[in-house]
Amino acid sequence: MKRIDLEGWSRRDQYRYFSKMQCPYCSVTCEIDVSAARSFMKDSGIPSYVGMIYLVTKAANSVPELRLRIEGEAVYDHDVVHPSFTILSDGGQLYFCRTRYTDDPGAFIKHTREVMAQTKSAGECPLDSTGQDVLYLSCLPWVHFTSVSHPMNLNSPDAIPRIVWGRFEAKENKTVMAVNLQVHHGLADGLHISQFMQALGESCAAPDAGFAGLARSF
Fold first, then answer.
1. Stronger pLDDT, 171 or 156, i.e. the higher one
2. pLDDT (mean) for 68-86
């Protein structure tokens, strides 16, 4: 992690302009073709939620602007960010989980499944802050949506991207999935949102590359 020199930063003016706004966030929803990824995960025994957490986190880490965070008056560039994601308890209660991102998909899948099981078995989950080096991820597997709004605390800077995806939806002989990304506009623009969507789409279209290095040890 390194602190950004604001005076020499190429985004200095955009950052200061958007940061003065009461709601400095922008959100985009796209449809991603997940036909190949869905088949790959099914054939490989990868739970679709865990598999998508991996691919989404991998895509986000490939865009430097999505690793920037605001802390007080400073902006920091994190080397890697990790998924903080939602799960439902057996009673239908919302729980938060956090796992560590690694390029090794097998290790990631195995560890993430263990964290999910531990969280559910604990019977309770404090809804606490998870730090800054995270992405907030969630899934709405019941609906195919066209937009999403996110709860935000506007009293203090919050630059953690929110990413949500919907159910697998059959469409024109393929399977698509709605994906929403919300970012702090002082740190990222439409270009960077598009780079994320492109990276995720490429991983879903070529899952052998998206899950490169997968060993069936999970």
1. 171
2. 96
Please indicate, yes or no, if residue 9 is contained in any of the structural domains: no
Residue 16 placed within a domain: no
Nearest to 46 by CA among 35, 38, 57, 36: 38
Strand partners, 171: 174
Structure tokens at 35: 């036909």
Rounded Cα–Cα distance for residues 31 and 136 (Å): 19
Query: Angle at CA 210, nearest 5°, toward 41 and 195?
Result: 125
Evaluate whether 85 touches 75 at the Cβ level (below 8 Å): no
Neighbours of 86 (CB within 10 A): 16
Could you tell me which residues are beta bridge partners of residue 165?
139, 179
User: Tokens representing 138?
Assistant: 């969630």
User: In CATH, what number is assigned to the domain containing residue 130?
Assistant: 3.30.559.10
pLDDT at residue number 114: 96
Angle at 178 between CA 14 and CA 201, to 5 degrees: 75
Q: How many CB atoms lie within 10 A of CB 116?
A: 19
Per the structure, how many domains does the chain have? 1
Give residue for tokens 């989404």: 56
